[in-house]
Design a protein that fits this description.
The chain has helices at residues 9-16, 46-49, 70-78, 131-140, 144-179, 207-231, 272-286; strands at residues 39-44, 82-85, 119-123, 184-188, 234-236. The protein has 294 residues and is of the alpha/beta class.
Length: 294
């Protein structure tokens, strides 16, 4: 998923399961002053890079990175003197600190950071271990066998896999802290795609399949919150903040449904409106006092 058109099962899953979790509310982020950062670095996977949102950065080495993703929009709002976007579609947490491809074009994302970096945002974890690809297969295919396997797969497999994800994400965040000791580091959660029960209806997805998928993202959100706490960095969950903007809410949606929109995002991934929303949310968060050193 690091080359062009790698919007396969892992990206599909990271999107479909980005729905719930513990987090912040709109009232948590009163704007008290204009945030000021000189050197900003963004890291993460496809929910950060913005596949299929035009314009795409032709120099991104197959990472499917939009020049209108939320890091780029945030950098403009912040008027950061320097901005480096290392996000890449399909990235897993180890890609933050390891160059899996062995190429200079797509190296370890942490290479973008230096001792002068004073802001880092990270959105990662949904692709680790192919977790969500496996859950998606169980929860969205059309067979009764798959539906029967969906809930047990979430409860048993994810419990173990996400425990490992917590450890890996925390380790990546700690490495970022080592390389950029004075930076404000923010781990960013995933936008919701499926609504809670009682919300809008996702055509073709039964309750037996959607409920376990929502449960899976709830577990991911908890895992990411734990990783942030372990690494002593901030965590911004999108659970409450993106409620009412799931894929089935039409013009209000911040993510696409099972079909992508040409020029406006891949399927089950943020659209341009979602990227603008995340940039606004983070800008407001950055206007508050830093809680990096909890």
């Amino acid at each position: 998923m690091f080359v062009a058109r790698r919007i396969g099962i892992a990206l599909l899953a990271a999107g479909l399961l980005a729905t719930t979790g513990c987090g912040t509310t709109k009232d948590d982020f009163p704007v008290t002053s204009k945030p000021k950062f000189n050197s900003y670095v963004a890291m993460g996977d496809s929910f950060v890079s913005g596949p299929d949102i035009t314009p795409q950065n032709s120099a991104a080495g197959g990472c499917q990175r939009s020049t209108e993703n939320y890091p780029a929009l945030l950098a403009k709002k912040l008027r950061a003197h320097t901005f480096r976007d290392a996000s890449c579609s399909g990235a897993i947490s180890s890609d933050i600190i390891v160059n899996r491809l062995g190429t200079a074009q797509i190296g370890a994302q942490i290479d973008a950071v230096n001792k002068n970096t004073d802001l880092v945002t990270v959105g990662i974890g949904g692709n680790d271990e192919g977790v969500f690809g496996k859950v998606i297969y169980a929860c969205t295919t059309g067979t009764r066998v798959a539906e029967a396997q969906c809930s047990p797969g979430v409860k048993v497999f994810l419990t173990q896999a996400l425990a490992r994800t917590t450890t890996r994400v925390a380790a990546s965040l700690e490495r970022i802290r080592e390389k950029a000791p004075n930076a404000r580091i923010v781990l960013v959660g995933y936008l919701r795609v499926l609504p809670e029960p009682g919300g809008c209806v996702v055509t073709g997805l039964t309750a037996a399949r959607s409920v376990p998928a929502i449960m899976a993202q709830d577990m991911l959100d908890t895992s990411l919150a734990q990783a942030a706490k372990r690494a002593k960095v901030e965590y911004v969950s999108m659970r409450t903040l993106s409620a009412g903007h799931e894929s089935c809410y039409g013009s209000k949606a911040w993510v696409n449904g099972f079909k992508g929109v040409q020029g406006d995002g891949a399927y089950l991934h943020p659209n341009a409106a979602g990227m603008r929303a995340v940039a606004d949310i983070l800008y407001k968060r950055l206007a508050t006092a830093s809680t990096n050193r909890q």
